[in-house]
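User:
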Amino acid sequence: MLFRQHIKHTLLLAWPLILAQVGHIVTGMVDNVFLGLYFGETEQAAGIVSNQLFVLLLVFNIGISFAITPLIASAEVNKNLAEKASLFKNALVLIPLIAVVIFSILYFSTPVLAYMHQPADVVELAKPFFRVLAFSIVPVSFFFVCKQYCEGLGKTMPGMLISIGGNILNVILNYVLIKGKFGFPNLGYMGSAWATFYARCFMGICFLIIVFYSKKFNPGKEFFRKAKINFYHLKKLFLIGMGSAFQFTFEVAAFVIAGLMIGSFGKESIDAHGIALGMAAFTYMFASGISGAVTIRVGQFKGTNDFKNIKGAGNAAFALVMISMGFFALIFLSLNEILPFGFTKSAEIAKLSSELLIIAAFFQMFDGVQVTALGILRGMEDVKFPTIITLIAYWGMALPLAYFLGFTLHFEIYGIWMALSVSLIFTAVSLYLRFRKLVSEKNKL
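Assistant: Predicted structure:
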């Protein structure tokens, strides 16, 4: 397959994934915007802290669901209907079950907020907000199982459309529940948390209905009925999924812990960090969409042992992510003083956010390369090496360096962001070299 064909096929798969991925981050950004516009620094900081902690375990659940895509893609290309139905049925049991465990951890861990060196008034408001978000982990897990299943079939549109619908509902519910419009109760800042919960319930229920009642996506009633909950598929999903889950969790945990470190510098620093990180996370979703697309393509090529096209698909994905993230870096550099005012009315918070966006511009392409490489390697079912690299990068490098630069050298929030940048560079280079090594070895066989 020619390089331009790889570009074309990757883009066709990627753009719905990008919109769906953007939808996930927009949920938190919408909450942040409403809290910033209708309330003060304390409520906004409470929402930011709650969302950051929630995302840490949400990402773990999402990472496990990512195991579904390459396995379904391989079964699809080999037209193995029984394998496909069995994988889907086992995933429908495993992922929500893990979500229940995560919910229990989330719900009963709220007292920990008091020991995280956050302002006392922020902690008090964050506790109930965080508990409501915890409830949404179970319904959204069904959304991710169905989404990754459909993506394994090469069908990326349903996830995009449901994600857009969920975000539209979230915006509407934020407005009506925060202010008590149209006969709805006035829930104040907690209206934002409940809006997110109801939107995620909607997304999970909608996707289950679509998969089971649409002939295009249904795994086959007869095959699904006969499929057994079996140790082989549960183990395979769990092992690949846990690798992906830890890869994402190591990174997100580093950013969350960095955010908690920043909390010791005051509410303005928390808000500025949340705004700048929200924008960086928004652009990251474009790279994540490309990563998801290349996982599907590599999973299909691996099913037929076509390593030449695995290399071509990987190189095309790297080219696309470098171009898109380079574009966002230029946006951050040129509009860094304007963009923060979309999230805050405070000139001081906006100024601090604008300075952080300059650092974000620097690591954009490295962030894109590392998540794309993770997607390629996941498609090749290579999870052990990337997991070790992410552990070293984020926990062995980023966090100690963040403490050293932020507190020992007194660079504060800037030092912490620089440390995160260093870890992204290390991860990007290491995973790209791993991809080159694997495809070179396979193509020599």
